[in-house]
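Fold it.
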Amino acid sequence: MAPKISGVTTGSGKKLPADQALSGAPSSFFDAVALMPSQQGAGMLAKEAAAVDWLRDAFGHLKIIGHVAAAAPVFAKASVEPDADAGVIALDGSKGVAAFVKAARQHRIWEREPTLRSPG
């Protein structure tokens, strides 16, 4: 997935295709999501409303969200804390990846729901 269906170009100039554009593939289509941009890419994503909304929606849909430290600007813009709860997981090495996979098996972080909605 990329901001545009045309894909992205890496820092070394390599073109990477995208299967979907962010604006056309809402997070609700996915069981779990991972945000793994470079520092430069994160700065660009933080300026893309579709990327910010995508992260905010993933959080609101109670998705498991894996991320790298470089994604911090996108989290800040979306007003989502990178350590908000057990379903927002830093992918910092094999332990982080293992925790993400384990949490993703749950499909949702139901404990998050009361923090996002009024009871009723």
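The domain at 27-116 is CATH 3.40.50.880 (Rossmann fold).
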